[in-house]
């Protein structure tokens, strides 16, 4: 008997269905008796849930968490990904079970950062990684609080920020005189790069070089590709197809690595152990001591890798925060006025703000906290992975499971914030308005937590505060009447606001 075309088609469809079902079952991990895998949405064969994520994965995964809970699982391509939401759940995983969740997944894009040797992006989470991270943290911390004996500033960070903030004030007033408006992002970018450059390399940092200007202007090529859920990490074929953004990412990493390599090499040639004035010098000194005992010695090329991580930790996040701040200030002039009234009352106009003024400026501090929360411009931490089989909230999580931590969801959780969509700095003040509500401030998550917490967090918060205090003491920011400011975030490792070329700044008082 001949098969009809319809019967043949049905047989083919059934065979394909059985194959897909077999593959799907093969993907499922073997779950120990009495435990269960995290719940999650159904995914398309080969594609998984990539279409659900769309261009705003933080929003899509927040919606899924409302349906499936704070521990859920999706697939990107054929790769299972654990998604964590909820402050308590994230704290449980990253702090209380920190050793289980401190790994990094072996993603393709990570191998392109610092020749695959980045502390931040490298899958290694063992003793060597821990020792280098500790060294980087200590170097960064010491130059955030240490002071130059020849300077009146309380620390190197304050000295560098004060100098660059003055230069930024001058540039903004020059732009106003020439064009009557400016794009704040590009101006802030240069100043922040100069601060971390000076902290890493002292006077050796080539602030006006064309190479440096070109590099810092192309940092978006990095943050767009290094973001959570980039298809190139989960669909290997995309690495071999024409991919302009991936090519830009590769080119940026190679150029940036060579740029830092050359500066570290120059630094090494005139290194003076008795006169340490920057982070590179501190790392070289540690190396000299370590090489005598063979304990704690770091190969010379690894210093470039550590500097690359420190530079990254002290650059993009700060630039993004300050430029977002200006956008929120021009769209909320009454909040800008309150900050300036506080600055006038506490500091006056005769001297520049200092880091030691922070406790006396709670409203400015509350504004920064609310900016971190409301923008959540680092929507996910850099992806984690599990270092061993573990159990979280009753769910079985196998070793080497890729983990996304949804910081945006925590910062917009109605159960925590009540009115999360409203921008309201006052929420972080105590009832009398004279101090920060510490308990609530600790519920904002932007720099991760636990063993992979951003090493630049303390420095970043200090630098953002000082830049804003100096700028707002002297200038009033605005946009012309009728100009619509677009605050729609552009998704990436750090989410930027669309460029706005219509910002204006006018002196609040004469400094002559």
From TrEMBL:
Signal peptide: 1-26
Main location: endoplasmic reticulum
GO biological process: alkaloid metabolic process; cellular respiration; cellular response to cadmium ion; dibenzo-p-dioxin metabolic process; estrogen metabolic process; hormone biosynthetic process; hydrogen peroxide biosynthetic process; lung development
Coiled coil: none
Topological type in the membrane: Peripheral membrane protein
Recorded metabolic or biological pathway in which this protein acts: Cofactor metabolism; retinol metabolism; Lipid metabolism
Residue sites binding heme per the record: 454
GO molecular function, one term: demethylase activity
Protein name in UniProt: Cytochrome P450 1A
Organism name: Neovison vison
GN (gene name): LOC122893016
